[in-house]
Design a protein that fits this description.
elongated, four-stranded mixed sheet
Amino acid sequence: MKNQYRVNEQIHVREVRVVSDNGAEVMPTRKALDLARQQGQDLVEISPNAQPPVCRIIDYSKFLYQQKKRQKEMRQKQVKVETKEIRFGPQTDEHDYQFKLKHAQEFLEEGNKVRAYVFFHGRSILFKEQGEVLLLRFANDLEEYGKVEQMPKLEGKKMFLYLAPKKSGTVKQSQQKRDRLAAEAAAKAQADTQKEQEAKDNGLFANAKNGADALKKLNKEG
């Protein structure tokens, strides 16, 4: 980084744009160098490709420290995405399948990618259709957590499936869950309608009864 920026006498252009907290000013490079010396600072070229190049009057050591600190903060903010592997056999049992499904879910929730594959030993390549079905089921069971980047594809003795994590806040519900929620909403709406109708019927019955009682009373008085 120390050789990444030109400083002081290394700046050979005729004029520069000097930026500061108060704004920016285009001036001859010699004048900018004199200002830097008067302040006991350095003239640092921070944007050499601009027209004219952009410089800042600052202590060069302090400037380098600030740049290193900024780069470190940026690296810390960057999420490191790893690719985790899940291996199956063509005839994986249910217990093993559920165990690996849980691990894949955790990997995707942590923001990692998943590469699942079925390894075919010898003549087990004859069961490649079973391997494809297994991987498709795997992708379907993880649809709330990951999206398919590559459908099952046979490469040599391995069939690969690639999954990438869904972005936070965009996890979609599975079809089964959507169907269940839709059924619950429909049942609730039906129950509300029934209650409303019952209340309406009770109201009509009460009005009719009150009307009949009033009519009897009038007849007696008459």
